[in-house]
Amino acid sequence: ITFKLAPDCRYTPDFVVMLPDGIIEVHEVKGFWEDDALVKIRVAAQMFPFRFVAVQKTAQKAGGGWTIREF
Question: What is the pTM of this model?
Answer without folding.
Answer: 0.86
